[in-house]
Amino acid sequence: MATKYSFLGRQDRLGLYSNDSLHTERISANKTVDVIGWIITFIAYVFAILTLPVSVFCCVKIIQDYERAVIFRLGRLQPVKQPGVIFILPCIDKWDRVDMRVKAFNVPPQKILTKDQAAVLVGATVQFLIKDPVASKGVVQDLNHSMRVLAQTTLVNIMMTLKLVEIQNDKKFTSIHAQDELNKATKSWGVQIHRIEISEPQVICAPPEFKPDLASMFKGADNPISTLFQVMQGATSGITPQVLPSRSNPATHHAPAMPVSREQPPHPTPLDPDQLVAIFNHVTDERLVQEIGCVYQFNISGQGGVWYLDLKNGCGRGGKGPPLGCMPDAVISLSSEDMHALFAGEMTAFNAYMQGRVTVEGDVRMAMKLESVVERMKQPRMGMRTAHVQNDHGRNDVMII
């Protein structure tokens, strides 16, 4: 007797018959679940009718024009309820109101390192609305928290790819770019980003100055400016420049330029930690203590050791070892080279922290106040000599004499 699978081979017929049996079992199981659900729903309706009019206060809900109702009955999603009066069955219905109006939240200002190594403080205001109420409840657990985290991460990632000038001058383009990136991520959540307003960036640290190569600006032997630049460069470096004759008048000959020697200024010798502490002890006073109000401990790698600067007690003092009689507010770990660069003003504390050259344990905000200490220590250091003296605690302090 021919069947609907007679044209297939034996193995294919066995597989299809097996799939048919599994499909039939699933359909029967679903029918059983549906029947049980209908029975429970019928009992809930009967219970709501028997408890009238008390059940009206629990079962009747009003949905406003700007709202939608998402209902799960016995774990199954029901059609989205439109504005009006709806009936909720107690115990078996779980429902939520979804506000379809435009909502907004603020991304708090945060420090961002731009592409050209500038540090800025940027925040934003994000406006969004829900397009799919079912997705907003079924896809993401906490929509508000997820939106805030995603907006903050997206803003940081975009700002890190831009230069400071682009952030300041192209705020509209940056906002559109951030809006597009957020819409790609939130589309599956049933959310549409309506608008993003980026706050005015506050520059914490300007980018390093760009110094163009002057020689590349005046290339070419026929250029008179190039000839003049070569003479000036040779006079500065002490090398006799070769001045080429002008091609416009071959008969004219130039006398070779006389070498001019100029002594290069000696490169400043890096200061040891004890010398830096001695300079600090020489310039610290009560005014600096009131301004800073912090105890620093420096863990210098290699042979640098441990040093402290106490800017909380008395007139301030520094020395070798951990702080005396108190706990440090900020513990700064760095190399001796980075410490010299920090106190010589070659890099700021913020840049060193952002680049990972300095690690801070404790109050990072207090560590950033080292800029004021560095400014105070930028004084003429000629004629200063250091000596080791023993303090009341038996330690050797470095003093300027």
UniProtKB/TrEMBL annotation:
Superkingdom field: Eukaryota
InterPro entries: Band-7_stomatin-like (IPR043202), Band_7 (IPR001107), Band_7/SPFH_dom_sf (IPR036013), SCP2_sterol-bd_dom (IPR003033), SCP2_sterol-bd_dom_sf (IPR036527), Stomatin_HflK_fam (IPR001972)
One GO location term (cellular component): cytoplasmic side of plasma membrane
Family: Belongs to the band 7/mec-2 family.
Protein name stated in the entry: Stomatin 1
Species whose genome carries this gene: Paramuricea clavata (Red gorgonian)
Upper classification of the organism: Eukaryota, Metazoa, Cnidaria, Anthozoa, Octocorallia
